[in-house]
Amino acid sequence: MQSAPRIAVDAMGGDFGPSAIVPGAVSAARERPIRLVLVGDTPRIEAELKKLDVSGLSVEVVHSTQVAEMTDKPADVVRRKKDASIVVAARLVKDGRADGVVSAGHTGATMACGMFILGRQPGVDRPALASIMPTEKRPMVLTDVGANLEAKSFHLFQFAVMADAMCRAVLGYEKPRLGLLSIGEEEGKGNSQVKEAFQMLRASSLNFLGNVEGRDIFRGETDIVVCDGFVGNVCLKLSEGLASSLGRMLKRELTTGLLSKLGTVLSMGALKRFKRLVDVSEYGGGLLLGLSAITIVCHGSSNPRSIHTAMRMAADYVSNKANETIAQTLAQNSDLTRFSRAKAANGNGA
Amino acid sequence: MQSAPRIAVDAMGGDFGPSAIVPGAVSAARERPIRLVLVGDTPRIEAELKKLDVSGLSVEVVHSTQVAEMTDKPADVVRRKKDASIVVAARLVKDGRADGVVSAGHTGATMACGMFILGRQPGVDRPALASIMPTEKRPMVLTDVGANLEAKSFHLFQFAVMADAMCRAVLGYEKPRLGLLSIGEEEGKGNSQVKEAFQMLRASSLNFLGNVEGRDIFRGETDIVVCDGFVGNVCLKLSEGLASSLGRMLKRELTTGLLSKLGTVLSMGALKRFKRLVDVSEYGGGLLLGLSAITIVCHGSSNPRSIHTAMRMAADYVSNKANETIAQTLAQNSDLTRFSRAKAANGNGA
């Protein structure tokens, strides 16, 4: 247990607060060795703990008196709400008392705490948000999904390096197959950033398959798809929205006519499994990569199951030393980005 | 019939050539007044016409001896294949012998013919490709879906103006509800181009609802969604890909277990209707907006039904004078783009 990863959990975050967060965290710690550091209002956290079986688990409660509210500006939380649960959680990591953070609270505040309290991992210019998505085959990683609305080619390259390490550590894939999102599969397709990133990725040690198009994402032939945060955020939300819309359209079609209705009742189990397959929320939250420690941002609506998944991902990320892999891969490929970084520093890079 | 729109059809384009194009064009002309100008190999076109009832229709056949092949570079087709069917079709429009072009051939060549032979409509800086997409409610227009991989704010504004006119003319919506694709609904969200375009659109005469996110596209609460061509192309292909993937996943789930199988048989009709609802190819092709005449680019795999739809759209676009609406709206709102155009001319515009 001494070596189990210590995850600081913002117990006050999310729509349901400690009543969803605490059970989710405890259930993850029952499944695998995780030392829990629960941050928030001690009486409320302890009330939740009393309802659960925590025998044999390592559970620390760290009291905090404030909460980041949805109306707070992210930077204000970091600067002024020094005792907000997410600020305290990030500081515990900074002080070496935890190895990673999980929060279902204010997304912007969590990201700001990561950026300003934890800070960037050496060698990374821009942290990126990664999301795990279902596909027809095994889950894949899409990044950036919103941390960087514009990205130079060497940023895209770094996103790929970080996603590769995360994919190995969290999903356990050996040589993740990497694709660069563009508007055609051929090498020359895309905007200038994509074309330049293509060259770097091809020359790198990563398992780069080439450009992929929007239509390929869900086929499951690539394990990582890299893009800038504007495109990635649109893709993520479009996928969620389209899956829900199709679900509603299917339901409407299936409830028209008696035979259809009977058919629907008979195929209910299959439809439920289908719904779970396409439910993006099954996959926990977004992983903020490139900070000195892993930070996972969960949906506000997270239930214990999503928190459980996020805790497991954070623990795997730490145990499998993903940040070390990132550092190694960046060092190994540092020559590749030198040119475009210099260009960008002179104000004319792609 | 004298006033019916004359549509030049590239009869040689697409995977099936005249055998799909000619019946599709004729069936559209049976449905509403369209004067057909079929361009290509006369004997093959006439062989197809013989199989069809063309009594009372206005059908002109214009012979051409060449075809744009998939391996041809678009610019080479315009410059060197002067007798390619798509080149001849575009030239007929240029010479005032037709009012619009429909082609299922080489997409790049069709776009190049539009740009270089037809030329831009006065006042439009960048033509844009628009696609009609299904939603939970009525169909909507997404633009740009690939003609401009990067777009300044005033380009985005012009895309909106063109889509508005097209939406009125082709879909018959009275005051199309317009959304700007971004990563959050609030006014300040997005990259610099989007933020600047937001201001112009809000001050314009268009029915602008504000920013929309990826998740909103298929809900059917907006009739037009505007974005740059990189994002739009990714969205279009992602939607097609996700709909197919979900269809396959659903089928796999439904064919597991005896009860499910029986259920599937009973709900087959509903599943078929569902498939049609989400089949993007039902909606004809992409409309290239902002040229001196409407140009419609159909999928290579177009069947007579898709060609029929494209012909109907081209005819409605012409009959309802969409290009005049674009010119009027641009004139009416010309002050709004002046500042960002000047900035871009100085090389520092968003």
The radius of gyration of chain A is: 21 Å
CATH topology title of the largest domain in chain A: Isopropylmalate Dehydrogenase
Label the CATH architecture of the largest domain in chain A: 3-Layer(aba) Sandwich
Which regions of chain A contain 5 or more consecutive residues with pLDDT less than 50? none
Number of domains of chain A: 2
Please indicate the percent range of residues of chain A in DSSP E strands (runs of 2 or more): 5-15%
Please report the number of helical segments of chain A.
13
Largest interface, chains and sizes: A-B, 57 and 57 residues
Please bin the fraction of helical residues of chain A.
40-55%
What is the H-and-E element order of chain A? EHEHEHHEHEEHEHEEHHHEEHHH
Shape of chain A: globular
Strand ordering within the main sheet of chain A: 3-2-1-4-11-10-5-6-9-7-8
CATH superfamily of the largest domain in chain A: Isopropylmalate Dehydrogenase
What is the CA-CA span between the terminal residues of chain A? Answer: 47 Å
**Structural class determined from secondary elements of chain A:** alpha/beta
Instruction: Kindly report the oligomeric state of this protein.
Output: homodimer
Largest sheet of chain A: 11 strands, mixed
- Assign the CATH class of the largest domain in chain A: Alpha Beta
DSSP strand tally of chain A:
11
Mean pLDDT over the residues of chain A: 90
Pfam families (chains A, B): FA_synthesis (PF02504)
Function (chains A, B): Catalyzes the reversible formation of acyl-phosphate (acyl-PO(4)) from acyl-[acyl-carrier-protein] (acyl-ACP). This enzyme utilizes acyl-ACP as fatty acyl donor, but not acyl-CoA.
Family (chains A, B): Belongs to the PlsX family.
Subunit structure (chains A, B): Homodimer. Probably interacts with PlsY.
